[in-house]
Every structure is written in C-alpha cells, then in structure tokens.
Write a structure and sequence with these properties.
heterodimer; A: 477 residues; mainly beta; Rossmann fold; Neuraminidase; 7-stranded mixed β-sheet; 4-stranded antiparallel β-sheet; 13% helix; 38% strand; B: 172 residues; alpha+beta; 60s Ribosomal Protein L30, Chain: A; globular
C-alpha cells in the first residue's frame, strides 16, 4: 500500500520500514506480535523495497460516504519501558501519548472519519496493544480502534508499532511498524495515520509528506516574503530565506533534496535551485532573462520554467542536474506560463492567453500537439495535474478566483471553493486533497487552506505568519 | 523606501493633471514635507540641487510622467502613455549619461506567475516605445514585479488601476 518512490538508502532518510516481529526477538510481548499472517519473506521485502505487505483476511474498505462517519478510537501508544529519549525527555510513555495525538490530528483535521483522541480515552497497557480490552472499546461505541507502542532501542532509535482493529469483529485489520531516529518520531505517527486512512478508505497515503510555501509578513505595500517548509500538519516549521529579498513560488523536487523557487536576490526575478542538504543554491539557467514559475518533472530529471525574452513569456525545459541546454517548448507571441506534468511525464498542462485571456492547454512533453482544454467560460489559470492523473486542478477566474477541478480533457468542471480570491492549487500526494492559498480582500492577508474533492471539507492550515504559494511534495521517501 | 515614496508623490500629481478614464482617480496627495524627508547622502547643512540624471531629478522633472497605466490584462501604449513616454525620452536624450529601469507591475486581481509575465509585457512595451523614440536600448533595462509591489493598497477598481503600471526609474 505504501509505495515509496525511492529506496530509503538512496534518499538518505533514516527511516526504515520494518514489520514489528523482526525487531524484538527477546521481548516476550513480541512473541504476540508475530502472527502467521506476516511471514518472514514479506518482512524482508518491506525492509528492502519499502513496500508494505498486502492485506490478508478480512477486507474492510468502506465507501467514501460511510467512512467519513466511522468512529475511530485512537488510544495513547504504550511502551515496554518508560525512558527518556531525544524525542521526549519525559520518556517513551509521554511520547506514546504524543504519537497518538498526531495520528488523531491527522485524521480529524482532514475531515476524515470521526476520531476520538487519546486524551479522552483510557490508556491501554503494553500487553493490551496486541490483545485489546474489547469490552472497554465496545462500550465506547468505537467501531475502529487504533493501538500502538513505542520502544527505545539500544542503538538510540525508536521502534513504533501501529495496529488497526475492528471492534465489532474483534479482529486485527492491519499492522505495521517503523524504526525511526528520535528526531523523526512524528513521521512514524504520520505513517500510522496513513496506514489507518489507506486501510479504511482504499486510497493511497498522504500524511507523511511536506509542504514548501511562502511565509508573508508586513504591510501590503512592503510585504516580506520568505521561503519556508513544514510537515503536512504544519509541524517542524522552518524558514529557509531571511526575507531580505522577495521569494515566491517554491516547488519541492520529488526526492525532497531540493527546492526550486523564485528569488529577487539579484534584483531580478530568477529561479534558483536550493539544495536543502548543503544550503547552496544555483540559477536554474544561465541567462540574463527573467525566469519564473518553476515545476519539476515527476521523475525529477527536468525542471520546467517560464522565461520572458523581450517581454514574451514562453515555457522551457532544462535538465535538473544543471549545465544542459534549455529546450524551448512553446513559441507563440502570447504568454505561456506555468506547466504541470502528467504523472507519467508524457504530457504538460499549462496556461496561455493566446485566445485573448488565460486558458488551460495540454501539450506533449516535447511541446508538440498543444490544444486548449478549457471551454467553460471564465479564465483558467495555474493548472496542476493530479498525482493520480485523473484530474487537473486550476484557479478558475470568473468574477472571483476559485479552486476548481476538471478532467484532463477539460470536462466535468467542478468549482470546489467559494471565496474572494483562492489561488494556486497543489495536490496531496494521493490526489484526494487540494491545498491552495486564500487572499483577504483589502488587507491582502494570505493563508493556506485545503479542500477535499467533494468541496465540503475545507479547513485552514495553521502557520506562524501569513502563508501563500503552497507546494505539497510527494509521500516522503 | 525613498524611491517608493517619490513614486507615490509624483503619481498623485499625475492624477490631478489627467482625466482619462484609464487613469487612476483623484487621491489625497501626500503631505509635502514627506518629499523633503529623503535623507541626504551626507549630513550637509544645505541641500544641493538634485543631480541631472539622478532619480530625484528625473522624478521631479517628470511630475508624474514617469508612470504609465494600463487597462486590465492589457499592455498597449495609448496616446496618453505616448505623451508621458515622449517626456521620458526627451529627458533621456538630454541627459545622455542617464540609464533607466522600466518596472512593470500588475494589480492583485491576477495569478502570481501570469502577473509576472504581464509585468514583463508592460515594462517591455514602455521600453520599446522609448527605443522607438531614439533612446539607446543599452541605456534601458526592464524588471517585472508582477503584483508584488502595489502602490495602492485597496482592493477596488481605483487601487487596481493605479497598480497596473510601468514606472521608469533612473539607475543612480
């Protein structure tokens, strides 16, 4: 179910996916964690490929209408031995509560299910993690139950286990475990939320991911705009630029190693590729012309950008490794800008005003066969292809600015938001939720919001200051 | 900061002179003392006259003609713009050492990337007109700020009209 795009070793992220039984030979609890349904071969596969084992046994994939109302009890994670770790100085018992709180927040704040969190629930013992006290949970009208544990290992890392139970059937639906560095404990909680969400909805995971965006402060006519990053739930927030020069429109590379964004650091709008590991940045292309609207190809090999030459903006493609010759993809005297690849990398959706106003077009990845797809009145701007490939999100301009989706053929257009100025959709890694930013009329204050594809579940993300230009990365490698 | 202030002041005076529908409506001028609050480079007791070719000199010589305005989504130079650009060209042809940046701007009622492209269009439209009047291209550069640097902060037609602009600024 969890499909990682890169093996963990390549990405250099110290998070290993491991089934729990492999980790704890000398722990008597762990003998309970070794059901026949998870074999040693699958454990091996998990550790190497990053693939989770397929579900076996009872199949519960409820319909979207039904799972939104599913009651899920998420109890504090237990621990075998309470001891302080760099993740929580109070100990693994306190950390277990925090882990469950993160799982609860993920599921609750996204309008998914009707979760009840650990602060309102009894705390299970370590032994109960694999042997739930069914009568307790049945009495609380919980249909689903999430249990978990956290254990400090001798090597300094943490093992986190996550279990989903069907209370009525008194049976385990799915389990998974992860070994993480203490600094990445929240990722284990997000992976647990992803496991629960995926198992119950049948959708791909998305919580274990990050967002790059622009943090905004100051008055409207002297706004300070800084590049910033955060986890999908707003945690681990970090400013990357100091605000001395305006930064705009970041995009994470698919492997999270780099961020392409626009900066006025030399006085002109130019795209830089910022290397997160080294803190260094380079120009996307050596040109005295302004470049903007950076976008990565799904495989990370190319960067699309828009460049204005003598006032005429067209779309170009350049190798992301640097040094290559840029390839021009559009040639009209109109504005062609933006661009977003289909998930297979074969096509690009972009916007152009060659018809007289901003409309959305699709072309092959080499620039051939461009054709307009938006014919529903109003303007079509900032198109973004869903990671699932089945939808294109865009900014619909028809009086107000709103977030809308359509098929890649431009059909079945649906407007999802209703405000004065919503702009710049970006997709959750599973193509089921869209983030965008909202500008308040008058003040110009900005904030990041997200909405699901029904348009019914809309919420504002918590950010330290004003926020715009969100870019949601894929599920972390 | 000072540059911005001067632009705002000259803009206000431009408004008083014009009645074109495309032009921004009348606005309250800034207090005159604001224009003299520009700090001198040295704490000289007496202020010297602005150097020809400097931004301060150009701005006061233009009295508003350093900025031209555009309709929504448009970048064409109309007769009003042409008049202002001719004054700019005369100045640049008189002070042959002067170099200028044409800044292109858009209003907030657009999407960010498109507004950057639109600002490019507007800055280049103004620059090309100056070149057509004989100003050497080598003395002109352009930059687009898209919607990032509004001079009017309201969210209404009047404010947006003031922000859809190309401003010529001397490179001191």
């Amino acid at each position: 179910m969890i499909r990682l795009r890169f093996p963990a070793a390549i990405a250099g992220v110290a998070l290993a996916l491991l089934a729990t039984p492999a980790m704890a030979q000398d722990d008597d609890l762990m003998s309970d964690l070794d059901p026949s349904s998870i074999g040693a071969d699958e454990v091996e596969d998990v550790a190497i490929e990053g693939d989770a084992p397929d579900d076996e046994g009872i199949s519960v994939t409820v319909t979207a209408d039904a799972w939104q109302d599913l009651g899920i009890a998420i109890a504090a994670f237990a621990t075998n031995r309470d001891q302080p770790t760099p993740a929580n100085s109070q100990g693994t018992q306190a950390l277990g509560l925090e882990l469950a709180r993160v799982v609860y927040s993920d599921l609750r704040f996204n309008g998914l299910f009707r979760p009840v969190g650990p602060d309102a629930l009894p705390r299970p013992s370590y032994a109960q993690i694999t042997d739930p006290a069914w009568s307790t949970w049945q009495g609380r009208s919980a249909e689903m139950l999430v249990h978990g544990y956290v254990r400090a290992n001798d090597d300094g890392r943490l093992t986190v286990g996550c279990y989903l139970y069907d209370v009525a059937l008194q049976s385990e639906l799915v389990r998974e475990g992860w070994v993480v560095q203490p600094s990445e404990w929240r990722r284990a909680a997000h992976k647990c939320a992803d496991l629960v969400y995926s198992r119950l909805s049948g959708e791909d995971p998305f919580f274990d991911s990050r967002i790059a965006y622009i943090a905004e402060t100051g008055p409207k006519d002297n706004r300070v705009k800084r590049l910033a990053i955060m986890d999908s739930d707003g945690a681990n927030h970090r400013f990357i630029t100091n605000g001395q020069s305006t930064a705009l429109t970041p995009r994470y590379s698919p492997d999270y190693a780099k961020i392409a964004y626009l900066s006025y650091v030399d006085g002109n709008p130019r795209i830089y590729v910022y290397d997160i590991g080294s803190g260094r940045q380079t120009l996307v292309t050596q040109s005295s012309n302004p470049t903007f609207a950076p976008r990565w190809s799904p495989d990370g090999r190319y960067i699309l950008y828009s460049m204005a030459v003598s006032g005429n903006t067209d779309i170009y493609r350049v190798s992301a490794s640097g040094g290559g010759t840029p390839e021009r993809l559009t040639f009209s005297p109109a504005i062609e800008v933006g661009g977003s690849y289909s998930p297979d990398g074969s096509q690009i959706v972009f916007e152009s005003d060659q018809s007289g106003s901003q409309q959305c077009y699709v072309m092959n990845a080499d620039g051939s066969n461009a054709r307009r797809i938006s014919f529903f009145g109003g303007r079509c701007a900032t198109p973004e292809w869903s990671p699932r490939g089945d939808q294109i999100a865009f900014t619909r301009i028809a009086g107000d600015f709103n977030i809308a989706v359509m098929s890649p053929q431009g059909r079945n257009m649906r407007v999802l938001t209703d405000a004065w100025h919503d702009e710049a959709p970006t997709w959750a890694p599973n193509g089921r939720i869209i983030q965008f930013f909202r500008t308040e009329r008058g003040s110009g204050d900005t904030s990041i919001w997200q909405v699901d594809l029904t348009g019914e579940n809309e919420r504002r993300l918590s950010t330290p200051v004003g926020a715009s230009d969100p870019a949601w990365g894929p599920v972390l490698p | 900061m000072n540059k911005r202030l001067i632009i705002a002041v000259t803009l206000s005076s431009a408004l008083a002179l014009s009645a074109c529908k495309k032009e921004p409506p009348e606005t309250t001028p800034l207090p005159p003392q604001d224009t003299t609050s520009t700090p001198a480079p040295t704490p000289a007791p007496t202020s010297t006259a602005p150097q020809p070719g400097s931004q301060q000199h150009f701005s006061s010589a233009m009295s508003g003609a350093d900025t031209i305005y555009f309709d929504t989504d448009q970048s064409n130079i109309d007769t009003e713009d042409a008049t202002a650009l001719r004054r700019q060209a005369e100045y640049l042809l008189q002070y042959t050492g002067a170099r200028a940046t044409v800044e292109g701007h858009a209003d907030e009622r657009g999407t960010r990337d498109y507004n950057l492209a639109l600002g490019e269009r507007r800055a280049n439209a103004a620059k090309n007109y100056l070149v057509s009047l004989g100003v050497p291209e080598s003395r002109l550069r352009t930059v687009s700020y898209g919607e990032e640097r509004p001079v009017a902060t309201g969210s209404n037609e009047q404010a947006w009209a003031r922000n859809r602009r190309a401003v010529t600024v001397m490179i001191d």
